[in-house]
Design a protein that fits this description.
The complex is a heterodimer of chains A (about 290) and B (about 575).
Chain A (H helix, E strand, L loop, with lengths): L17 H34 L15 H30 L37 E8 L2 E5 L12 E3 L1 E5 L3 E8 L4 E3 L8 E3 L5 E6 L8 E5 L12 E7 L1 H30 L21
Helix pairs in contact in A: 1-2
Chain B lengths: L9 H8 L15 H6 L4 H30 L9 H35 L8 H19 L27 H29 L12 H32 L13 H35 L6 H15 L14 H29 L8 H24 L1 H7 L3 H31 L5 H27 L15 H32 L28 E2 L7 H15 L7 E2 L3 H6 L3
Antiparallel strand pairs in B: 1-2
Helix pairs in contact in B: 3-4, 3-5, 3-15, 4-5, 4-6, 4-8, 4-13, 5-6, 6-7, 7-8, 7-9, 8-9, 8-10, 8-13, 9-10, 10-11, 11-13, 11-14, 13-14, 14-15
Classes of the chains: A alpha+beta (about 290), B mainly alpha (about 575).
Chain lengths: ~290, ~575
C-alpha cells in the first residue's frame, strides 16, 4: 500500500485532493488551539501539584470560590468554542463544495464517457460551479467495492465497471454516489478526504480532484464501518491516470466486457445446441448478454 | 434479611427507657454465611456485591482487551480468526460499558449515597436487591453466549449487520437480553437513587449542601431514566426484526438502518456522561479532602454537572457525522458538542483552583485524581477535534476514536473508579490499603495507559480503521501497534497490583478507624465498616462539609469544655428525611 506510506504522527493523511488538504489544514488549526489549551491547563495542574504539596507549617487557604474568576474562564472557554466554529465555517466550502475540473483534465463536455450525465445539485449532493463532474457510483458489498463509471446515458446496467480498484483521470472533479447493497460500509481513501458511510437505502456523496503531479499514484484505503468478519479485507484503491489513459481504460473495459459477453453467448449456444429444436434459442439475448451501445 | 427492613423494635424500647439516643447497632442477630448475601437488602452489602461483580467483569473485559492487543501486536497476525476477533471486541466493549463502568457507579452509589446523606438505607431496599440480581442475570445471559456463539457486531450492534440475515446465530439475541436486563437493573436503581436523594437527606441538608458525589449520582440517575427507555425500545425493535418478521431497520422493506443509529446514540451519548459524571463527583469529593481546602466553586460544579447532563442529551448525532445527513444536522450537532466543552472546562478549572494554595497530601486517591485530571484533559481536547465534523470525517471509525474514547473512559472513568476504591476502601472494610502498592499501581497504570493509547491517535491518523483483525505494515503501523500492545500489558500489571493490594489489605491492612482521611462528608461520621443501621445519630447539617464542622466543634469543645450541641436521633433518620428539609 504505497499510498499510505508517508506516515504522519500528528496530522491526518492528505495530498491527493484539495478537500483532503483543507481538512488537514482545519485539523492543524484545531490542533494548535488544542496544544495551547493542553500546555496551559497541564502547566497549571502540574504547577499546583508541585507548588502546594503539603509542607510543615503550611496552611491551606480556605477559598470557596471566586465568582469573577469563574465567569471569566466560562467566557474564555466559550470564546474558544466560537473561534473554532468560525474557523470550521470558513473552511467548510473548500471541503464540501467540489471544484471545477481543470483544463487539462478529462473534457467532460465532449468525452464519450461523461457526456450528458448531469446530476442536479441538491442539499446533500454538490456539483462543481460549472455543473460538470465525472460521476462514479460506488457500491459497497461484503467484502468489496464496485465502481460504476458513467457512459453518457441513463441506463446504468451496461456501464463500464470495476471492482476494488477505481481508475480516475487527474485534474478532473470526480463526484461519488456512495451506496451499499447489504450491510453498512464506509468509503474512505485517507489521502482523498474524509469518510462517507454507505448505508442501504441511502446515497451518500463526496468528491475529489487528483492533481496532475499525482498521476500514476495509487491511493489506498479500506472500509471503515464494521461490515462483518472480513471487514479488514475490504480494501479499496484509487489509481490516478492521465485523461487519455482514463479514456483508454474505459475503452478497454468495454471491449473486455463485450468480449466476455460474446464468449458467454457462444458458450451458451454450444451448450444449448443439442436441444436446438427447442424454442430456448432466444435466450441468447438474456440477462448475461447485455447489449452495449 | 429483616435486618434492613424495620428498625421499629428499637424505638419503642428506647422510648420506654426514655433515652435521648439509641445505642444499639443491630436489632436482630446479623446474618452470616452466604445466605446473608443472597437474601440481603442492606445497601452496603448490595454495594459490595455490585463492586465485586463489576470488578469480575472488569477483569474479563480486560483479558478480552489483552487478546485483542496480542492479535494486533503484529501485522497480518494469525493468532485469532476474524470471527473470534469480532466476538472479542464485541464482548470487550459491551462488558466494559454495561457490566463494568455503569454498574460500578451503582455499586459505589449504593454504598455511599445513603451514608453521605445520613440515611439508614436506600428508599426501596428490596428494589435495590432486585437491581443487583438483574445485573447478574444480564451478565450471565450475555456471557452464556460464549458457549454457543457470541455476537460479532460490536457494542454498537449496527443494523443491518445485526439482522438475522447477516448474524443468524443467537449471540445478538443474548446481547439484546443483556441490554434489557441490565437496563431494568439500572432503571430501577436510578429511580431508587432519585427517591433516596430527594427524600432521605439528613436534617439541614438542603440541595446546596448535598455532597457533589451525590449531585453526580442524582444526575446519573436522571440520565439513566431518560436514556434507558430509548435503548430498550430500540433493541425490542431489533428483537422483533430478528425473530418476528418486522422490518424496522430493513431498508429494502421501508425500514431504516439510520433509525437504529439515531436511537442507539440517543441513548449512547448520555451513556457516556452516565459513565463519567459520577467520576467527576468522586474527584470533587477527594480533591478538597487531600488539599485540605474547600471545593472551589461548589455551585458552579453542581450546576456544570446538570448542564453537562442536559447538553449530553443533545449531541448524539456527532457519532454519525459520516452518515448521509443534511448539513444543518451536522452543524447543529457540532455546535452542541462544542457547547458541552464549556461546562466540562469549567469543572477542570475549578478542580485545579481547588488544589491552588492548598496543602496537598499525596495519598493514592489523590494521585488517581491528579492522573485523571491530566489524562481526561487530553480526551476532552481530542473530543473537540471529533466535534468539528469535517475533521471527524477523517477521524471517525479509526484508532483515533479508539484512543479518544479510552482517554475519557479509562483515563476518565477508570482512574476515578480506582480513586474511589482507594478512598472508600477503609470505610467499606475498616482497613487501610497499602500506600506503597497503591502508588506503584497508580504509576504503572498511568505509564501503561499512555503507552497503550497515546500512539493510537497516530495509528488512526495513518489510516487504520477500528475493528479490523489484521492490517498491512504500512509506514510505522506495526511499530505503533506493538508499542500499544506493550503498554496494554503494563496497564494490566498496574491493575493487577491494585487487585493484590485489595486482597492483602482485606486481611492485613492497618485498622482504619472511622475517619482516616479527615473527610468532609457524613460517611466518615460512622464506624468503618458501618453497622447495619449506619448511624446512631445524625448531626444537623450546616454546610457542605459537615465533618469539618464536627471536628471544629470538637476542638472548640475541648478548648472551652462547652456541652455539645444535641444531635438528632439516628434510627428515625428515614422518617426525618421525609419531612421537607
Amino acid at each position: 500500500m504505497p499510498g499510505v506510506a508517508a506516515a504522519d504522527f500528528w496530522t491526518p493523511e492528505s495530498g491527493g485532493s484539495s478537500n483532503a488538504d483543507a481538512i488537514d489544514n482545519l485539523y492543524k488549526f484545531v490542533l494548535a488551539i488544542g496544544a495551547v489549551i493542553f500546555f496551559g491547563v497541564e502547566g497549571a495542574l502540574f504547577y499546583s501539584l508541585w507548588k502546594f504539596k503539603a509542607r510543615k507549617g503550611a496552611v491551606a487557604a480556605q477559598i470557596r470560590g471566586n465568582t469573577r474568576l469563574e465567569i471569566a474562564w466560562t467566557v474564555g472557554a466559550a470564546v474558544i468554542v466560537v473561534v473554532l466554529a468560525v474557523a470550521t465555517f470558513a473552511a467548510l466550502p473548500s471541503i464540501r463544495n467540489p471544484e471545477t475540473s481543470a483544463k487539462d483534465g478529462l473534457d467532460l463536455a465532449t468525452s464519450g464517457v461523461a457526456q450528458g450525465v448531469l446530476v442536479a445539485s441538491g442539499p446533500t449532493k454538490k456539483l462543481p460551479p460549472d455543473g460538470k463532474s465525472l460521476n462514479i457510483k460506488v457500491n459497497g458489498q461484503q467484502y468489496l467495492w464496485r465502481y460504476t463509471y458513467p457512459d453518457g446515458d441513463d441506463n446504468t446496467l451496461n456501464n463500464p465497471f470495476s471492482y476494488e480498484e477505481m481508475v480516475v483521470p487527474t485534474e478532473t472533479t470526480v463526484t461519488l454516489d456512495i451506496e451499499a447493497q447489504d450491510v453498512a460500509h464506509s468509503w474512505w481513501i485517507p489521502k482523498l478526504g474524509g469518510k462517507f458511510d454507505a448505508i442501504p437505502g441511502y446515497t451518500n456523496y463526496t468528491w475529489f480532484k487528483v492533481p496532475q503531479k499525482m498521476e500514476g499514484t495509487t491511493f489506498t484505503g479500506q472500509c471503515a464501518e464494521l461490515c462483518g468478519r472480513n471487514h479488514a479485507n475490504m480494501t479499496a484503491r484509487v489509481r490516478a491516470v492521465s485523461p487519455t489513459d482514463f479514456e483508454a481504460f474505459i475503452a478497454q473495459r468495454r471491449k473486455d466486457t463485450k468480449a466476455a459477453d460474446e464468449a458467454a453467448a457462444k458458450q451458451r449456444k454450444e451448450v444449448e445446441a443439442p436441444a436446438a429444436d427447442q424454442p430456448a434459442a432466444d435466450e441468447t439475448s438474456g440477462p448475461t448478454a447485455t447489449p452495449l451501445p | 434479611m429483616a435486618t434492613t427492613e424495620t428498625p421499629a423494635p428499637t424505638t419503642p424500647r428506647a422510648a420506654q427507657a426514655a433515652l435521648p439516643q439509641i445505642v444499639a447497632h443491630t436489632v436482630e442477630r446479623p446474618g452470616t454465611g452466604w445466605t446473608s448475601w443472597l437474601t440481603t437488602t442492606d445497601h452496603k452489602k448490595i454495594g459490595i456485591m455490585y463492586l465485586v461483580l463489576t470488578f469480575v467483569f472488569f477483569i474479563l473485559g480486560g483479558v478480552e482487551a489483552l487478546l485483542i492487543r496480542l492479535q494486533l501486536a503484529q501485522a497480518n497476525n494469525t493468532l485469532l480468526t476474524p470471527q473470534t476477533y469480532n466476538e472479542l471486541f464485541t464482548l470487550h466493549g459491551t462488558t466494559m460499558v454495561f457490566l463494568f463502568v455503569v454498574p460500578v457507579w451503582a455499586g459505589f452509589g449504593n454504598y455511599f449515597v445513603p451514608l453521605m446523606i445520613g440515611a439508614r438505607d436506600m428508599a426501596f431496599p428490596k428494589l435495590n436487591a432486585m437491581s443487583f440480581w438483574m445485573l447478574l442475570m444480564g451478565g450471565i445471559v450475555f456471557y452464556a453466549s460464549i458457549f454457543y456463539s457470541p455476537p460479532e457486531c460490536g457494542w454498537t450492534c449496527y443494523s443491518p449487520l445485526s439482522s438475522s440475515e447477516y448474524l443468524p446465530t443467537a449471540g445478538v439475541d443474548a446481547w439484546i437480553f443483556l441490554i434489557h436486563l441490565t437496563g431494568i437493573s439500572s432503571l430501577i436503581g436510578a429511580i431508587n437513587f432519585y427517591a433516596t436523594i430527594a427524600n432521605m437527606r439528613a436534617p439541614g441538608m438542603g440541595w446546596g449542601r448535598l455532597p457533589l458525589f451525590v449531585w453526580a449520582v442524582l444526575t446519573y440517575a436522571v440520565l439513566l431514566i431518560l436514556a434507558l427507555p430509548v435503548i430498550a425500545g430500540a433493541v425490542t425493535l431489533l428483537l422483533t426484526d430478528r425473530n418476528f418478521g418486522t422490518h424496522f431497520y430493513d431498508a429494502s422493506s421501508g425500514g431504516s438502518p439510520l433509525l437504529w443509529q439515531h436511537l442507539f446514540w440517543f441513548f449512547g451519548h448520555p451513556e457516556v456522561y452516565i459513565m463519567i459524571l459520577p467520576g467527576f463527583g468522586v474527584v470533587s469529593e477527594i480533591l478538597p479532602v487531600f488539599a485540605r481546602k474547600p471545593i472551589f466553586g461548589y455551585k458552579a460544579i453542581a450546576a456544570a454537572t446538570v448542564v453537562i447532563a442536559f447538553l449530553g442529551l443533545l449531541v448524539w448525532a456527532h457519532h454519525m457525522f459520516a452518515t448521509p445527513s443534511p448539513t444543518i444536522v451536522l452543524v447543529f450537532f457540532m455546535m452542541s458538542s462544542f457547547l458541552i466543552a464549556v461546562p466540562t472546562g469549567v469543572k477542570i478549572f475549578n478542580w485545579i483552583a481547588t488544589l491552588w494554595r492548598g496543602t496537598i497530601e499525596y495519598k493514592t486517591p489523590l494521585l488517581f485524581c491528579a492522573g485523571f485530571l491530566g489524562t481526561f484533559l487530553i480526551g476532552g481536547i481530542t473530543g473537540v477535534f471529533l466535534a468539528v465534523f469535517p475533521v471527524d470525517w477523517q477521524l471517525t471509525d479509526t484508532y483515533f476514536v479508539v484512543a479518544h474514547l479510552h482517554y475519557v473512559l479509562v483515563g476518565g472513568s477508570v482512574f476515578t473508579i480506582f480513586a474511589a476504591l482507594y478512598y472508600w476502601f477503609p470505610k467499606m472494610t475498616g482497613r487501610m490499603m497499602s500506600e506503597g502498592l497503591g502508588r506503584a499501581s497508580f504509576w504503572t497504570m498511568l505509564v501503561g495507559f499512555h503507552t497503550t493509547f497515546f500512539v493510537q491517535h497516530a495509528i488512526g491518523l495513518d489510516g487504520m480503521p477500528r475493528r479490523i483483525y489484521e492490517y498491512d505494515d504500512v509506514g510505522n503501523l506495526e511499530l505503533y501497534n506493538l508499542i500499544s500492545t506493550f503498554g496494554s500489558f503494563i496497564l494490566a500489571a498496574g491493575i493487577g497490583l491494585t487487585i493484590i493490594n485489595v486482597y492483602r489489605s482485606l486481611k492485613r491492612g492497618a485498622t482504619a478507624g472511622p475517619d482516616p482521611w479527615k473527610g468532609n462528608t457524613l460517611e466518615w461520621y460512622t464506624q468503618s465498616p458501618p453497622p447495619a443501621n449506619n448511624f446512631d445519630s445524625v448531626p444537623r447539617i450546616r454546610s457542605v462539609e459537615p465533618m469539618k464542622d464536627i471536628r471544629r466543634q470538637v476542638a472548640r469543645q475541648a478548648m472551652s469544655a462547652e456541652p455539645m450541641v444535641p444531635v438528632a436521633s439516628a434510627t428515625t433518620a428515614p422518617e426525618q428525611g421525609l419531612q421537607p428539609s
